[in-house]
Every structure is written in C-alpha cells, then in structure tokens.
Amino acid sequence: MSVDNLSSTDTSFGKAKPSAVQSRRAKKIVPFCLTFIICFATWFVLSGRFDFFHIALGIIACTIVASLSGSILISRRGLENLPGQWLGFILYIPWLLYQVLLANIHVMYLVFHPRMIELIDPRIISFKSKLKKPMSLFIFANSITLTPGTITVFVSITGEYTVHVIDEKSGNSLPGEMEERVARLMGE
Amino acid sequence: MTLVAAIFIVLGLFFFTGGSIGILRFPDFFSRLHPAGKLDSMGLLMTLAGMALYTARDLSLPAILTALKILLIVVFVFITSPTATHAILDAGVRAGLGPWTAPKKKGTR
C-alpha cells in the first residue's frame, strides 16, 4: 500500500495535498461499494427470503466482508478502466463458450473414433506469451485448460506457458486468437 | 420449454458418456485428463442449463431463484474445474511422469 501511495503522489498529485487525500479516500470507497454489491446480490440469490431479518443479516455480513476484502477483489490501481474491462469480460464469455463447444465436439470425435490411437499425438509444448498482467495470465491459462485438447501444465509470472496438447490440431490454435482476445480484454 | 430442457439434458448426458468412454480409451494419465476434466464441464453446463430452464418454466420468484442457484453452480465449476485439472496434471509432471507419445510409424502396441 505504501508503494502505491508513493507512486501516485509522485506522478499526479505533486502539490495538491487536499485533493490527493480526497481522491485516495474515493479510491478506497469504490472497491468497497462494488464488493458490497456483488456480495449482497449473491446473498439475495442464495437466501431467497426477503423479510427484514434476513436482509439485515445480509447487510451486516456483506459490510464486514467488503471492508475486510474489498481491496483484494478489485485492485485500486486500474480503477479507471474497470467498466470497460467488465464489459469486455461479458463479451468474452460467449466467445469462450463457443470455442469450448467446438473443441468439445473435436474431442468427442477423437473419443468415438475407432482408430483413435493413431489420431492422437500427445505432447508437451511451451511458448512465450506477450501478456503481462497476472490477471490476464490467469484468465488465459484457465481458458486454455477449459478448451478441450489443451491443459496448462505450468505458467510463469513472465508469461512462459507449458501446455499439454492431445493432438496436432489442438496445439496449432495456441497462442493464437485467444491470446489476442485476452490482451484486448485486459487492455494490454 | 420442457422439450428444450429435455434436449439440453440429453445432450449433456451425451457429453458425459463421451467423457467416461474417453477416460477408458485414452492411452495414458495425461490424455485421460482431457476427457475427464473437460467433457465433464461441458456436460455439466448442458445438463444444468436444461435443469435451470425446466425449473424456471412457470416464472414464479422461488423458481427463478432456484434456477439462478443452479447457474451459480455452473459458474463455480467453470472456475474450479480447470484449476483442479491443472493441479493434477502439474503434480504428474513434477513427479517425473512423461507423456505417452505416439509410436513412430507402424504402431506396435
């Protein structure tokens, strides 16, 4: 946290002390509110009761959780482009599901093929990704694993991926379009 | 609505069947994880989407809440399933197990 404060004071809030304090407070309140809203929506769906007692319990619990862990879920660093990121994520999910469906059909074809043992060619490949943010590395790794035919074995923080692929065709799609989409989604 | 739900569930069961057969047919530990980890998540998505549609067919509040809960299960499985698959596979690699590779021409299996 101290590093965060230091860098922000150095770059943008050189002399205007009061506005810096105010802006820092605003930066604390936004993650809290967002976490609270997410928690409370989940509470509503899971509890399913709308009387005073249950809603009051939910408000208390969500306040505690949001005040303790608000800064974990939403980092204060990239607050400005957060709406765009979420919109991109919502647009990314249907595309990912479509890819998962295509790849599933491909693996189904392999499974039911009588000469399956000649078609598959399992191997471990590795490649270097140009993604940098840890969150986009995580999303990309999970997307790779979710797409059948490829499983992430190892990801390093510098973006080196080790992937187990089941046949030539699945391996050729890496890193490819999925990386482009993740990069665009996270604004890299 | 019921018909669409039934189609979804049957498709999902088809994926599950494929996953089970794949686990039996593939040659080694790593390649068996492919159908186990992922045909299952697709089958789960299909089956639970069908169930959610079937539950929410009369559009009353409790029914919709139940459908939302079913969809939440899908979301959590889609986050945890790749992670678990990756953990198992990583354990295999760290233990020193190499992948099964196709025999070079004229497979003598």
Number of domains of chain B: 1
- The beta-strand count of chain B equals 0
Tally of DSSP helical segments of chain B:
3
Percent of residues in helices of chain A? 55-70%
- Coarse shape of chain A: elongated
Q: How much of the sequence of chain B is in beta strands?
A: under 5%
> Unreliable runs of chain B, pLDDT <50, ≥5 residues?
105-109
Classify the helix fraction of chain B into a percent range. Answer: over 70%
Unreliable sequence segments of chain A: 1-16
Overview of the molecule:
The complex is a heterodimer of chains A (188) and B (109). The relative contact order of chain A is 0.10. Chain A has helices spanning 2-11, 17-47, 52-73, 82-112, 116-119, 134-146, 168-172, 176-185; strands spanning 123-128, 150-155, 160-165. Chain A has 188 residues and is mainly α. In chain A, helix 2 packs across helix 3 and helix 4 packs antiparallel against helix 8. In chain A, strand 2 and strand 3 form a beta hairpin. Chain B has one domain. In chain B, 78% of the residues lie in helices and 0% in strands. Chain B has helices at 2-25, 29-55, 61-94. In chain B, helix 1 runs antiparallel to helix 2 and helix 2 packs antiparallel against helix 3. Chain B starts with a helix and ends in a 15-residue tail after the last helix. The model of chain B is unreliable at 105-109 (pLDDT under 50). Chains A and B meet through helix 2, helix 4, helix 5, helix 6 and strand 2 of A and helix 1, helix 2 and helix 3 of B.
Summary tags:
heterodimer, A: 188 residues, mainly alpha, 3-stranded antiparallel beta sheet, disordered N terminus, B: 109 residues, 78% helix, elongated, disordered C terminus
Summarize the structure.
Chain A has helices spanning 2-11, 17-47, 52-73, 82-112, 116-119, 134-146, 168-172, 176-185; strands at 123-128, 150-155, 160-165. By secondary structure, chain A is mainly α. Chain B has one domain (2-94).
